TrEMBL record:
<dbReference type="InterPro" id="IPR008972">
    <property type="entry name" value="Cupredoxin"/>
</dbReference>
<keyword id="KW-0677">Repeat</keyword>
<dbReference type="GO" id="GO:0005507">
    <property type="term" value="F:copper ion binding"/>
</dbReference>
<dbReference type="InterPro" id="IPR034288">
    <property type="entry name" value="CuRO_1_LCC"/>
</dbReference>
<protein>
    <recommendedName>
        <fullName>Laccase</fullName>
        <ecNumber>1.10.3.2</ecNumber>
    </recommendedName>
</protein>
<dbReference type="InterPro" id="IPR001117">
    <property type="entry name" value="Cu-oxidase_2nd"/>
</dbReference>
<dbReference type="Pfam" id="PF07732">
    <property type="entry name" value="Cu-oxidase_3"/>
</dbReference>
<feature type="domain" description="Plastocyanin-like">
    <location>
        <begin position="137"/>
        <end position="287"/>
    </location>
</feature>
<dbReference type="InterPro" id="IPR045087">
    <property type="entry name" value="Cu-oxidase_fam"/>
</dbReference>
<dbReference type="InterPro" id="IPR034285">
    <property type="entry name" value="CuRO_2_LCC"/>
</dbReference>
<keyword id="KW-0732">Signal</keyword>
<keyword id="KW-0479">Metal-binding</keyword>
<keyword id="KW-0439">Lignin degradation</keyword>
<dbReference type="InterPro" id="IPR033138">
    <property type="entry name" value="Cu_oxidase_CS"/>
</dbReference>
<dbReference type="GO" id="GO:0052716">
    <property type="term" value="F:hydroquinone:oxygen oxidoreductase activity"/>
</dbReference>
<comment type="function">
    <text>Lignin degradation and detoxification of lignin-derived products.</text>
</comment>
<dbReference type="GO" id="GO:0046274">
    <property type="term" value="P:lignin catabolic process"/>
</dbReference>
């Protein structure tokens, strides 16, 4: 195992997209940010220096941070922000995980431009378990571009109480591509050679959109999700939610029928509100001379598009549930699935949108439903971001005035999908957490409370991978649904979409002491309070305790 050092200098840089030039926060002047690479078992040391006129923190999304919670990064959960001019060294190991993860800013909406891949290769000399080594491995970040300042977008949304302005384009590694204004030259091109196999390390870095993904005329083989191997399966359309990662194999045709094919993303949502209903295109480009002589005219730089893949309609929830149901962990001797077979504590979390009274109206109104402000909650509690680090408060056992350990185990009112809106939009506010004893086997049933016309919620758990043991549509029914759980080879992930008008059940063992955020990875829902935290106590043994914070830890005054 090695130690790998990186420097992140957070600076403003001038970037032009869609004919709009603006100054954006970047790491080392690059957009998107640099790729971090490690081998399983390595230690990463990332020295961050903040040279922008805003606070910042970084989160290493999906890294387990076993007993290194001080490096996890969500602002006011594990640390106070790195102030302008300040610095902090994030130090953590990547153990027991391999595949693609990513990093992003975890303060306000700064992750709109501060993000990049974190690739964990197998240890030296260890092969991939179920597929040969690809010819090339290519990170592909599926994102969103806002012409406006994303900070201003969320500030305004919170003030007027309505939904935020939506993004102006989807992007591939920061490039919108030829379906948008002035963007033909800003097109991501994946150059391939006939017959070779490529691994796409897909990451949904979008702020607010679940995405369909496909490559025209090419089948993809999914081999990894959230840095865990899965039993390989073939698919023509993928669904990937914000926060999720997926490694897929693409084999270039031996005799391609064209020189270029479109790689496309489009949103999945059935929200009634407005959303960015555009399709972004990148180009899969065969080496010159590879295509058959009878091939159609390839796309030219003058704007004609290569063959588009057929993506599902924006609200095709069946396509989404079909795809999600196909994930199985490898569950092999070498990569066993250590699913908790019994649980010590069971939680039922109702997850969804709600409303607050209009408090700061603009022109007399708020823009949520019936002149309210939108809010979002778990069990009717909308999370209030504390002013100090919960982890620091926990380490010092100073909870008074910071958090309360009374997060409800059930929603305030039970509800039912009967075809009419459930009356569960009532919202309270608080920084409420669930304390867990070390090594507790936890089951959480996440029930979406929306009716037709809402979206699913990609719930991300910090500090853990969890097993997805069951899912269904409509109401979770403890009596029947528990019997159908998959405890043999459920997929292991750090982010799972709670399906619209459905539920999902997850299990994990609380073996990582610290304070761990669980939240919707649609940033607007996070801003509205769709979040909670687990407070996992130390175990009795020395190697089961959270060590003290590093000396340069950005303390909260
Ligand atoms: Cu990728 Cu708390 O986030």
């Amino acid at each position: 195992a090695r130690t790998r050092r990186y420097s992140f200098n957070v600076t403003m840089a001038t970037v032009t997209r869609l004919c709009v030039t603006k100054s954006i926060p970047t790491v080392n002047g690059r957009f998107p940010g640099p790729k971090l690479v490690a081998r399983e078992g390595d230690t990463l040391v990332v020295r961050v220096t903040n040279n922008i006129n805003n606070n910042v923190t970084f989160h290493w999304h999906g890294v387990r941070q076993l007993r290194s919670g001080w490096a996890d990064g969500p602002a006011f959960i594990t640390q106070c922000p790195i102030r302008p001019g300040g610095s902090y060294v994030y130090r953590f190991a990547v153990a027991g995980q391999r595949g693609t993860l990513w990093w992003h800013a975890h303060f306000s909406w700064l992750r709109a431009t501060l993000y990049g891949p974190l690739v964990i290769l197998p240890p030296r000399g260890v092969a991939y378990p179920s597929f040969p080594r690809p010819h090339r491995e290519v990170p592909l970040m599926l994102g969103e571009w806002f012409n406006a300042d994303p900070e201003a977008v969320i500030r305004q949304a919170l003030q007027i109480g309505g939904g935020p302005n939506v993004s102006d384009a989807y992007t591939f590694n920061g490039l919108p591509g030829p379906t948008y204004n002035c963007s033909s030259n800003d097109t991501f091109r994946l150059r391939v050679r006939p017959g070779k196999t490529y691994m796409l390390r897909l990451i949904n870095v979008a702020l607010n959109d679940e995405l369909f993904f496909g490559v025209a005329n090419h089948t993809l083989t999914v081999v990894q999700a959230d840095a865990s191997y899965v039993k390989p399966f073939a698919a023509t359309t993928l669904v990937i939610s914000p926060g999720q990662t997926m490694d897929v194999l693409l084999t270039a045709a031996a005799n391609p029928s064209s020189q270029t094919f479109a790689i496309a993303v489009a949103p999945y949502t059935n929200t009634v509100g407005t959303f960015d209903n555009t399709t972004a295109v990148a180009v899969l480009e065969y080496a010159a001379g590879a295509s058959a002589p009878q091939a159609p005219t390839p796309a030219s730089a003058t704007g004609s598009l290569p063959f588009l893949p057929a993506l599902p309609l924006y609200n095709d929830t069946n396509a989404v549930s079909d795809f999600s149901s196909r994930f199985r962990s490898l569950a092999s001797a070498r990569y066993p699935a250590r699913v908790p077979r019994t649980v010590d504590r069971h939680f039922f979390f109702a997850v969804g949108l709600g409303a607050d009274p209009c408090q700061s109206p603009v022109n007399g109104t708020c823009q949520g439903p019936n002149n309210t402000r939108f809010a979002a909650s778990i069990n009717n509690v909308s999370f209030v971001m504390p002013k100090t680090s919960l982890l620091q408060a926990h380490y010092q056992r100073r909870y008074n005035g910071v958090l309360t350990a009374n997060f409800p185990a059930a929603p305030r009112t039970p509800f039912n999908y009967t075809g009419t809106p459930p009356n569960n939009t009532f919202v309270t506010h608080g920084t409420r957490v669930v304390p867990l004893e070390f090594n507790t086997a936890v089951e959480v049933v996440l029930q979406d409370t929306s009716i037709q016309g809402a979206e699913s919620h990609p719930l991300h758990l910090h500090g853990y991978d969890f097993f997805v043991v069951g899912t269904g549509s409509g109401n979770y029914d403890a009596g029947n649904d528990t019997a159908k759980y998959n405890l043999v080879d459920p997929v292991q992930r750090n982010t799972i979409s709670v399906p619209t008008a459905g539920w999902v059940a997850i299990r994990f063992v609380a073996d990582n002491p610290g304070v761990w955020l669980m939240h919707c990875h649609l940033d607007v829902h996070l801003s509205w309070g769709l979040s909670m935290a687990w407070l996992v106590n130390d175990g009795p043994l020395p190697n089961q305790k959270l060590p003290p914070p590093p000396s340069d830890f950005p303390r909260c005054s």
